[in-house]
Specification:
Order of helices and strands: HEHEEHEEHH
Strand content: 15-25%
Distance between the termini: 66 Å
Number of strands: 5
Helix content: 25-40%
Shape: globular
Structural class: alpha+beta
Number of helices: 5
Length: about 160
Amino acid sequence: MNIITTSHTPENKKRNGEHILIHMTYIAKNVELNSGIELTRALEYWRRYFEENDIVSALVISEGYFVQSFQGTRPAINTALAKIFDEHSTIFPNIVNIEEIESRQWSGFLIKHLTSSAEDEEYTLKSFSAGSDYNPYLMTSAQIENFLKAIFDEKKPQIHDVI
């Protein structure tokens, strides 16, 4: 009689990609949250959700647009993305980049709110936008990634950084 044994080794856990870190970036237009209170509640909900699911995030909000990068395990990112599409389909998220990474770039749930001030204009218009108005839909995926990096690394963006 042949006896087959199966062990629950860490190899079995790898079947769902728990060992693979994913970096995903999306852009979206805010058409649903009409007040600062609604936006604050939504951001707090997602901050807690990401924390509970070991996902780190960098989010820029400017002129009604969201540019957000998530980093976490493949199953966690897949679940979060499905949840975003299910619960917030009216923001119309557009994925601009998904890639495997070796380590997380961000720490926690980072948020920057850029305004039309001269200080923020360097980030939003002069260095990264393809037109005279800030619109991440006109940016390439490389520009968007460099935009996030420049904002959260606190370095001054340079034109050659986006080319």
